[in-house]
Design brief:
By secondary structure, the protein is an alpha/beta fold. Helices cover 31% and strands 15% of the residues. Strands 1-2-3 form a 3-stranded parallel beta sheet, covered by helices on one side.
């Protein structure tokens, strides 16, 4: 099909965050595909989110899908941002 990119998502509430990051790095290293890596701020500090962005950049990722993400309790739950975190994807 020759896609222009592949979108790599997180599990609900950021539950697969680390696996997502490993998958994105493998796509860069082992294929010719361009990953559009999902990045959420759920249950993460600004420092943690910024570190992920720096790691993605160093790995060659140039496309990020920035999302707030689902509340840790799941869809329909109340989202409460961390004091040291981003409130939403726009930030």
């Amino acid at each position: 099909l020759n896609p222009s990119f592949v979108s790599v998502t997180y599990g609900a509430g950021g539950s697969t965050r680390e696996r997502t990051h490993r998958t994105v790095r493998r796509i860069i290293e082992e294929t010719g595909l361009k990953p559009a890596a999902h990045l959420t701020c759920v249950d993460a500090s600004r420092e943690e989110v910024d570190a992920v962005i720096r790691d993605y950049w160093a790995a060659g990722v140039r496309h990020v899908v920035a999302l707030r993400g689902d509340p840790p309790g799941g869809v329909g739950g109340v989202y409460v941002p961390r004091e040291d975190g981003y409130k939403n994807a726009t930030e």
